[in-house]
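Our collaborator T.R. sent over the components below with a one-line note: 'Predict the complex.' Nothing else. No constraints on interfaces, no templates requested, no preferences about which chain binds where. So this is a plain run: every listed entity goes in together, and whatever single assembly comes back becomes the starting point for the next discussion.
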Amino acid sequence: MCDTCGCSADGGAVLRKPGESDYLMHVSDGNHGHTHHHAGEVHHSSANVQEEHHDHAHDHHHHESTTRKIVLEQDVLQQNNLLAERNRGYFEARHIFALNFLSSPGSGKTSLLEKIIPLLQQRFPVAVIEGDQQTTNDADRIHALGVPVIQINTGSGCHLDALMVNRAVKELEVQDHSLLCIENVGNLVCPALFDLGEALKVVIISVTEGDDKPLKYPTMFHEADLCILNKIDLLPYVEFDVAKCRENAMRVNHHLEWFEVSAKSGEGLSVLQEWIEKRLSHH
Amino acid sequence: MHEMSIAMSIVEAVVAHAQKEGARRVSGVDLRIGKLAGIEPESLKFCFSAAAKGTLAEEALLAVDEPEGVGECGECGMRFPVTFYYAECPGCRSLRITIVSGEEFLIQSITIEEEGEQENV
Ligand SMILES: Nc1nc2c(ncn2[C@@H]2O[C@H](COP(=O)(O)OP(=O)(O)O)[C@@H](O)[C@H]2O)c(=O)[nH]1
Ligand SMILES: [Mg+2]
Ligand SMILES: [Zn+2]
Ligand SMILES: [Zn+2]
Ligand SMILES: [Zn+2]
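Returned assembly:
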């Protein structure tokens, strides 16, 4: 809700907590300012205008309406990137190891978390941020494991951003030395562009998708640090060339760590678990 | 339509600068979107006009410069044009390529119209 005019911020993200039905918080309330603007709000008094001009020491000519070009060279995602760096600093100071899980809807992000968190939890505290456009289903599933979890509902937004994570972390009790798992909105395009402040990006694909997925979504695979191929229990039933998929992924990003797992049968999970534990203890 | 939230952040940044500069309106916005940036310029232009409705940038013309991708070989150091994140070095066939250009995503400049001003205020 906008304080200036009372208009509702359409599609604004909200936070929800499983088991607390009356908890709801708007992400963009507070210091985010306006994402929409109203004609008429912008007319400063002429004294103000003069002052600002002299502050900026730009060349300007004193005649009627003038046109002026201002060079910005500003990164479009600058605001997000700055906030992501603040998140990153906060995580580092508290030795929180944050992983950003990315995939198309249904590749098995939540299933994988459900399976691997009970294993990891024996050695490290774990907390989860769940991203989804509408539902709290995923947070409910994680809540059942008994770890702290908060749901971000992005509404019409198709990715998490650094501000949402910043707010969610404040509302979530994350202990020092935790593993923080962030499940992004199911989408392989936009989440690649938005840094959340995570230590690593984890992209998940399943064998029911095409083995050319890394080539179709190169930005995502280029940005990722780990790639997890899930649902390998289904390999006998689908046409999926694991070696080819891996090769495609490595072509887009030769630094990619590669894992093959089944969140259903548990196959491959211990290798992934050991890798995460090793990284966590060196963090 | 994933370019929408990006269009909104561009409008937000442009309007903030324009206000700071005392602009009456914004007549142009120049973007630099590398061919490897993962952004669809046409889709972004469409979203920009929607996102700019009712703001100082409502009538702004959006111009997009799209620098080509350039890769650098990790083995032999050769630089060459790339159209994708993976490429083979034309010199030594290595696949260890680092992208050195083409990922830009910048608001290069804005053109504003100012209020008429008086001499010797
Ligand atoms: N056969 C099989 N199904 C799986 C596996 N992992 C997840 N699924 C199924 O895939 C569907 C989507 O999983 P979910 O974890 O909700 O995906 P998300 O949207 O990425 O969070 C569910 O029906 C899961 O039961 C797996 O390893 N093997
Ligand atoms: Mg899920
Ligand atoms: Zn308002
Ligand atoms: Zn999108
Ligand atoms: Zn070479």
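Summary for T.R.: The first helix of chain B runs from residue 3 to 20.
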